[in-house]
Design a protein that fits this description.
There is one protein chain. This protein is mostly helical and 151 residues long. Helix content is 58%, strand content 8%. It is built from 8 helices and 2 strands, in the order H-H-H-E-E-H-H-H-H-H. It has helices at residues 2-29, 42-49, 55-66, 85-94, 96-99, 107-112, 126-139, 142-146, and strands at 69-74, 77-82. A hairpin with a 2-residue loop joins strand 1 and strand 2 (77-82). The longest helix has 28 residues, at 2-29.
Length: 151
């Protein structure tokens, strides 16, 4: 029983150290919009206890406190919420190519996602444009879709 306890304690300590170091590193390298501070492991559990329908009033309160662009740490990656129509238009329409890049994957994610050789996991660029063009021209073409219709 003592060995299992030591293993669990060492795993908890290593997870706490890793998350603390990642927060310190990310705060130095990335300039993110303002948002509430979170405790490395406990902050993620707080979001798990909330319902999806409770998110809107929370974001409204954060908008009043931090402004129209808010960063929330949900899980291991930050989530950025834009609560202003003009800012959303600028980010999604005018600068869409800049913000369309997916975050880097872990090494195990490369294996699971076929080394980013499909449309759902490829990074934005020439490969993704080629995958999208092939999907639209072959699979999503109206003549091809008619073959899948139930008559």
């Amino acid at each position: 029983m003592e060995i299992w306890f030591m293993i669990i304690v060492s795993l908890c300590i290593s997870a706490l150290i890793r998350s603390t170091l990642s927060i310190i590193q990310s705060s130095k390298t990335k300039k993110l919009p303002p948002g509430p501070t979170t405790v490395p492991i406990i902050g993620s559990f707080i979001w798990l206890s909330k319902s999806f329908f409770q998110l809107e009033p929370i974001l409204h309160n954060f908008k009043l406190k931090y402004g129209p662009i808010i960063t929330l740490k949900m899980g291991s990656r930050p989530a950025i919420f834009i609560a202003n129509h003009t800012s959303a238009y600028c980010a999604l329409v005018q600068a869409g190519a800049i913000f369309s890049e997916r975050p880097e994957e872990l090494p195990t994610g490369h294996v699971i996602n076929s080394y980013q050789h499909n449309i759902s996991s490829a990074s934005y660029g020439p490969n993704w444009l080629l995958f999208r063009r092939n999907m639209v021209e072959t699979i999503m073409h109206p003549a091809r879709l008619k073959t899948f219709w139930w008559t």
